[in-house]
Design goal:
Layout: H1 6-12, H2 14-31, H3 37-51, H4 62-79, H5 97-110, H6 124-128, H7 136-156, H8 167-182, H9 187-195, H10 202-265
């Protein structure tokens, strides 16, 4: 996890928050070639841990891209041992192999060579084992719960409020949220199973779960607003086209009279 003060620094510094968002965009761009969401997630994890311990000079904005590219390189090497710096999508960039390798060493030093990051994905199978899903038709449900919780975890990484939660708490909260959507009848049973686990802080778990709920409500409202705007745009466009058609018809019908009038005046 990033250092404890990192989350508060992001909240109070527009510059640091902007750096993070730009760097995540670069990581997504650079890692697209590998088609591995876990690789991208790990690279962002390295980025957050690095930014939480190092100050980035404002006079060198290009360095963020180099850091992002180096995080992807390190993540790729952890996920795919046969990958080298030469496999990175650096075409059109100002960075050569030596620059990337030097930055990799800087990042490795800052992270104290602790590259096997603990992520929420490490806890999914453990929490799912607490659910009574042994029958054949429930095995499919178990797979769906894990798949959707995984997708949700990828999305949560962009939101800084979830940086303050431990990976185990995020794993439990995402599974709870997904279970409330997929199987609301069994939700209470799942909730009891996770909350009774001695390794999980129940208060932190429910706080994270509520944060996911609030985030979901905000996204739904944004989608509803966008849909309403699109509908209004379509209605306006249709009305405008109808009015335009009427105007053309009127002009077309009246144009001979105008030509007659003009002829008489001449």
């Amino acid at each position: 996890m990033p250092s404890s003060h990192y989350f508060h620094n992001l909240k109070s510094s527009a510059f640091l928050l902007s750096n993070r968002l730009n760097s995540i965009s670069s990581i997504i761009q650079y890692s697209r070639k590998f088609d591995d969401p876990s690789l991208t997630y790990l690279a962002v994890n390295y980025l957050d841990r690095f930014l939480s311990s190092e100050d980035i000079p404002q006079s060198k904005p290009w360095i963020l891209k180099l850091i992002s590219l180096s995080c992807v390189s390190l993540s790729a090497k952890m996920r795919k041992p046969n990958i080298s710096v030469h496999d990175l999508p650096v075409e059109g960039e100002m960075f050569d192999v030596q620059m990337i390798e030097r930055m990799e060493n800087v990042i490795l030093g800052a992270l104290k060579w602790r590259m096997r990051s603990i992520t929420p994905f490490s806890f999914f199978d453990f929490f799912l084992s607490l659910f009574d899903l042994k029958e054949d038709h429930l095995v499919v449900l178990k797979h769906s719960l894990k798949s959707q919780a995984t997708d949700l975890t990828f999305n949560l990484q962009h939101d800084i409020k979830f940086l303050e939660f431990k990976p185990s708490v995020i794993a439990g909260a995402t599974l709870l949220f997904v279970s409330s959507e997929l199987c609301p009848i069994q939700f209470q049973c799942f909730s009891n199973g996770i909350c009774q686990c001695t390794y999980v802080n129940k208060d932190e778990l429910m706080e994270c779960y509520k944060a996911i709920q609030e985030r979901d409500i905000v996204e739904e409202n944004e989608v509803s607003t966008e849909t309403a705007v699109n509908v209004l745009d379509q209605q306006f466009s249709s009305s405008y086209e109808e009015e335009s058609d009427k105007s053309i018809t009127i002009i077309t019908a009246s144009s001979p009279k105008r030509r007659k009038t003009c002829t008489r005046r001449c």
